[in-house]
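Quality-control log, excerpt.
Job 1 of 2 completed; input and output follow.
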Amino acid sequence: MNPVYAALGTTIFEEMSARARASGAVNLGQGFPDGPGPEPVLRAAAAALTERSNQYPPMLGLAELRQAVADHYRRHQDLDLAPEEVIVTSGATEALAAAILALVTPGDEVLLIQPLYDAYLPLVERAGGVPRLIRLEPPEWQVSEAMLEAAAGPRTRLLILNNPVNPLGTAMGEEELAVIARFCVAHDVIAVCDEVWEHVVFDGARHRPLLGFPGMRERTVKIGSAGKIFALTGWKVGWMCAAPALARGLSRAHQFLTFTTPPNLQWAVAEGLAHHGGWIEAASAGFQRSRDRLAKGLAGLGLVTTHSAATYFLSIDLAASGIAMDDRAFCEWMLEGAGVAGIPISAFYAEAPVAHLVRLCFAKEDATLDEALRRLAVALPRLEDRR
């Protein structure tokens, strides 16, 4: 077996979800909503399944969806993309795999920012890339020019950037993104931008894509996800956006991964992007209300949380909450002692992990969040007795 995969265990998300299912725990670990998603988009998928073709769609994606993605980004992010610069993939993880396999030659150095989504490192290593790790520091969690310069080497070719940041719930600001863009231009680095949370941002903020910064149009792969935009994580419909020279290479890798994506889902996502932007905005507002509900409830239990500016996640700060346990131990206690599943932030590190934060998913119905809070309220006094 390839040693990259032989050394890997089951992802922390699958592990915690499986244990939650087996034990009846409230699952605030894996990041999926428990709502149904937008009904018009679901109806469009169902209708397409019976009324339209179920044979191979074009390898690059249905023309309707590629046009809808380009139009969507023109409206929402002021990006001038042609449909030919959009490649539809079977989810964002496939897009990441295609981009890394297409762009990394064995020996190339790839900059990875910790904490990082767990798929990045094995994909880079499987492509023969040399990972060079940048470690964000609390409480700012910001990338600086000094960090980038210190990590860059003579063969640095790629930077993988997750913004908004999945593990932390942070979103990069204009100045931080400008620093990254200037670095990429100066060092002739291609940026693969995992921007699946671009529409799940809060408090009036607006997502800024790195592709829109000076010098980045020809050196950025922008990755998006319909599963995140429409809260339909099981659909696994994503895309890569890149200038033609990059897109040609990306398509050659994509054609030998999944080749294509179910056509009925593609038609439905095209319908959603073109006609149901109001649902997207309402969903983001709903997730913000859920964030506030969970944060307020945890505060009432004496648990301090980090601020979530985006994504489905906030974290309990164990140290600030006066809990002398690391994140993995607390997640074990929370699952076994309280019947609530979370994710240790240390799972998102390849080395030197931060180990005092526990990530919780708030993209749930009120009843789900309230039940998790009730269980924690019952169990926390027992934790105090053990300390």
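Job 2 of 2 completed; input and output follow.
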Amino acid sequence: MQEIFARTALTPAGWQDDVRVTIGADGRIAAVEAGAAPASAYRVPVLLPALSNLHSHTFQRAMAGLAERRGQKGRDSFWTWRQTMYRFLDRLSPEDIEAIAAFAFMEMQEAGFCAVAEFHYLHHQPGGGAHADIAELAARIADAAGETGIGLTLLPVLYRYGGADRRPLADGQLRFGNDMAAFERLMAGAQGHLAHLPADTVLGAAAHSLRAATAEEIRTVSALRPEAPFHIHIAEQGPEVEEILAAFGARPVEYLLGEAVVDRRWCLIHATHMNAVETRELARTGAVAGLCPITEANLGDGVFNGSAFRRAGGMLGVGSDSNVRISVPEELRQLEYSQRLKDRARTVLAEPGASCGRALYDTALAGGARALGRESGALETGRWADLVALDPAAFAGLASGDAILDGWIFAGGNEAVTDLWSAGRHSVQGGRHVAREAIAGRYRARLEKIVVGL
């Protein structure tokens, strides 16, 4: 049993003072008591339920900053960035992938994320040959999660084709590809490799996109684990919308909703380019829109139709995607600021009279937990003890109540995070991951080898 005493905490009843949270040996919250005495509990200034990161490609963390030089010809875009990514990933060994994943997972926890949905599509050796264990790289992700203590929802990804015209995979894509029989072996192998991880670990599934899998294949993959999360990239880029429209006679979200039973266990990543009808119809499904505002800005994707989606009752959460920058407050800040620029207004994602920081945080809490299939998102008995502690002196001094979240999200950063628990695992203490030195040292050694001459 662990006990945490917070001067103030965000509970289902709102902000309460002198809160003692008891964590059971199973990693779940056993009790929440307001107006309590600290006794011998671990003391923190502010305690919040921690967010889940709903979309990550950890291997891309090591290429952050390597694709920021403008090309000699034409206009740089997601598609030119992707060529750099393909060259980069062909340098990665299984040992590299594990070291990078551990470093990214550690940074996520230090930034305030308790858990992550790893959208895992890097499966094979350079050139496309399978490892002796087809799930070798899934095992590396699992081992990195085990080392860092982060909560993991692993999403092995089906990636069949190089475009909506079903052309074969080429170049860097060859490391991603599996037919359905191979993918089912991959799923079985991944399940075995997760067996040693804690009870909050989840195995879901994903299809990369409408460009990389047929509608029939998407339905088949989504049915492999019918109670688990299912994720897919969709409508991220304007050229992608044009390609799907030309191939199938419908826009991406429109086409998917007509071809699959999209419901609460689905997470549609990006969904940046939706018209008004798609926005409304996606909101009605209960699926989560998985937004990655920092990556979407970095890649020039566009701006999600957030105000209309929320008015329609849509659920959303945030993820770190390419991991060019990992930060809870910065993802939420970028989300709100993008809406302000689009709508030329302020506090767009808050209801009248409400705190914008609180609205953003509450929304991302619920959306992230749903997208990961994770029983968390509140300081409530029976939920996983996914908790983050903040020091408000790092951003807002004497702020209290919702002003704490306004201060952290709009004026603060990762330095405000003092502690983090993932299903009771106290991985961040005093602002640093308990295994930072070893994880960072191994990452630096691997990175020096990877980036030479890139």
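Post-run check on job 2. The chain has one domain: 50-377.
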